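User: I'm curious whether this sequence folds into something compact or stays loose and floppy. Could you predict its structure so I can see for myself?
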Amino acid sequence: MENNSYIEFKKERDLGSIISDTFKFIRENWREYFNAVIKIVGPFILAGAIIMVFFLGSFEGIFSEMQSASNSDPSAAFGFMGTMFGWIGLLMLVGAIIYVMVSVTSLYFIKSYINNNGKADFTEVKKNTFKNIWKFIGLGFLIMIMIFFGAILCYIPGIYLGIVFSLATSIMVFEDKSIGDTISHCFTLIKGAWWPTFGVLIVVGFLVSILGSVFSVPAFIYQIIKMATMAGQEDPTQIFNFFSDPIYIFLNVLSYVGKFILSSITLIATVFLYFDLNEQKNLTGTIEKIERLGQ
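Assistant: Here's the prediction. I'll summarize afterward.
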């Protein structure tokens, strides 16, 4: 049976169509899509939120103890700094795992959506996500190293590689390639289309950053107001008390969760971009349509 709301991925699109179809896909599939993301990635997001709560809640104690220790033994302050950076490192690690999980879940949701003519199968999405998660972690780690070394060389090679590898996860999912073949195919697919790809990602990134302000600005404004009201106190360490403020913690957790929700926009736009470039180079969608007509 034909699904009239089905969005065709395998075709060429201009910048406007990529952006509009990204939001159209979210608008028409948000319930099934976010239901899959929450069920699969929800426990990891909850763990990250709990870590952030403990991290922010411990700030006041860390700074108070650091102040006391620095008065008696200046070298002891480095131990408390190590504790703080330990929390930050743990939060970054969990955040990276969540981002990978959201990416893999989103991509396999779209793959199931395409294979089932607009009706993604949650069981299929969950199975593929956990089956291939380590392969994606390996791919992400390798790409991160390559971009890092590229960025050392005056940043420009790092930016170039960042755009090239933006297609990597889509290639791995929709073409079922190995890590090495995925990296190699990124350069093949983007050849002659680096600047258009860069333009799409810049525009999408700008839109996502504007939408992200809905989650991040309230915490920033509250922080400024709270610090301003505490600035006149005699004890300068009291200014760090707002880190344990329940409202401040809630707004930061909201911003933390919102960041991963908004990452879906970029991921879906990247999939449309991948199929656009793939269609230009390989005419995959056109060939499939011809084969269906022949049947």
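Summary: Residues 6 and 79 are 57 Å apart (CA to CA). DSSP finds nine helices and no strands in the chain.
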